[in-house]
Amino acid sequence: MICKNRLLAGIVALFGYDIIDPQPGSSYGNGVTHQSLKTVTRRLKMRNMRNITTFVVVLLALVVAVPAASADIISNSATFGPREVAFSGLTRDLQKFDPTLGVLEKVTLTLNASAYAGTISWDNEATIASDVDLGIGAELTATSMANLVVVALPLQEGSASVAADNDGAADFIGTDAFAVTGGSGSDSDFDETILPADLLAFTGPGTFQVEISSQANTYLASNGGFGPIDPVPGMTDGSVMVTYEYSTPEPTTMVLLAVGGMGVLARKRRKA
């Protein structure tokens, strides 16, 4: 009990009272008695609790209202083509992530590609009519460091109902044949990484290389017919793009951390 009174007397002393020795029945200076000390201490405790509660509520409200960090996105891209569909060894340089912008969290590599100016023909050699879907285009692959690989399959497509074989020859003409000769197709694909080692590889000054290759791609689907196709690949073009998702601390968050730190220090000083 005596230890408790000494502690309470010390708390009251912090608020301007001249406390000598918190003993029951004693006078502590400035007209403070043991009984009045208990009353003042009780009031101070209640007031401090209200202040602390208000501070905590305001702090929590700010934490909820303000995100811990802002999420930002930056990207860099390069184009290629027009080129004939079949090619390999084509490279494009893309910018690495600047670490002064913030903390890198994710890297995404995207390939966008188009195919056009190709033709594909089909001749039905079956004795029954058939619906047919035809496509001619390209299969493009882009690879970069960290084993990011993306594949796009742009196709010029068409469909038709084709008669049964009526000439006994695969000449790709007549009512038993169909050809896709115009239009264009597009496709895209992406790959991403959040692995720390990969993020580090994409961070820093300079650039990194993306290697692009392409080969002809065809598509055929029929519901009963069969026969040969005659594909003539066309042209392709597109772009590769790297996207960096990163975070930066909000100024308000830093203020909240500073306020919280000041509160902790003040508490330690009072205890000391």
- Low-confidence regions: 1-21
Helix content: 25-40%
Which class best fits the helix and strand makeup?
A: alpha+beta
Specify the number of helices. 4
State the oligomer.
single chain
Average pLDDT: 82
Shape: elongated
Question: What does the model show?
Answer:
The chain contains four helices and twelve strands. The chain starts with a helix and ends with a helix. It is 26% helix and 44% strand. Helix 1 crosses helix 2 (34-65). Strands 2, 5, 6, 7 and 10 form a five-stranded antiparallel β-sheet that branches. A four-stranded antiparallel β-sheet has the order 1-12-3-9. It is α+β, with helices and mostly antiparallel strands. The chain folds into two domains: 2-66 and 251-271; 70-249. The protein is elongated and about 110 Å long.
Structure summarized in a few sentences:
The protein has helices at about 1-15, 35-65, 195-200, 250-270, and strands at about 70-85, 85-95, 105-115, 120-125, 130-145, 150, 155-160, 175-180, 185-195, 205-220, 230, 235-250. By secondary structure, the chain is an alpha+beta fold. The strands form three sheets. Strands 2, 5, 6, 7 and 10 form a five-stranded antiparallel sheet that branches. It has a four-stranded antiparallel sheet with strand order 1-12-3-9.
Features:
single chain, 272 residues, alpha+beta, five-stranded antiparallel β-sheet, 4 helices, 26% helix, 44% strand, disordered N terminus
Helix-strand blueprint:
Elements: H1 2-14, H2 34-65, E1 69-84, E2 87-95, E3 103-116, E4 119-123, E5 130-144, E6 148-152, E7 155-162, E8 177-180, E9 184-193, H3 196-201, E10 207-222, E11 229-232, E12 235-249, H4 251-271
Antiparallel strand pairs: 1-12, 2-10, 3-9, 3-12, 4-8, 4-11, 5-6, 5-7, 5-10
Helix pairs in contact: 1-2
